Amino acid sequence: MRLRIAHTTHYQFGQPVAHGLQRLRLSPKTTQGQKVLAWQMSYEGAVEEVRFEDHNHNHVVLVSVVPGASEVIVRCEGVVATADNHGVIGQHSGYMPLWAFLAQTPLTRPGPKVRAIMSGLDVPRDEAVPMLHRLSALVREAVDYLPGETSVQTTAEEAATLGAGVCQDHAHVFIGAVRALGLPARYVSGYLMMDDRIEQEASHAWVEAHVEGLGWVGFDVANGISPDERYVRVATGRDYAEAAPVTGLSWGGGETRLAVSLAVEQQHQEQ
What we know:
Pfam families: Bact_transglu_N, Transglut_core. This protein is an alpha+beta fold.
């Protein structure tokens, strides 16, 4: 499948910005199950400074905000060819050792509520893939999809206690539980083409767990499936903080308003 993606991020500042830097993880990479056919980025109110690969092997662009700018617009557009590999990405590669994905972070560290979810596991732990699918179902049952109740700072334990959250929270709860079971797990940010619409509400998040003999295997907890050809991987990390689409800092600017528009649709090739 060929997916066309158009993603615009629009920041408006209450006052002109004196100085600002933004780290953009908005460029998908060619990997198992996907091939980037075209991808371009453009900016208003910002200047590209450097491109590099971070420790998670993500494509990163660092931009500086033009001094005095009252808004920054980042536009991404491209085409990615995808295939359905049943969520299997394959063996580990990159700069981070596999054992690094066993360590909990402040966002994933499980507490009593996450461990209570794990207590419902009734699949033998030596059957890794069925166990992980069962764990995904338990997390989805315990944490209702409810936008507006959590933020990017919400931890896995907080979301589990609240019993509500979004795909980011499902991912953090699942990651914390998987690591507690002794398996490496990582956060994935990217795009999902919903079957009933072109305009999407936001980018998506899911998880990959490392299974012996298969390598990294994806689990979309929010939707209860493994990623298929409708998914495009953009960035990975130990949690949201390492795979966030945009992070940065600024001086001045006052109150900031953010608007995001995202369209993901299948591109039909001409015969």
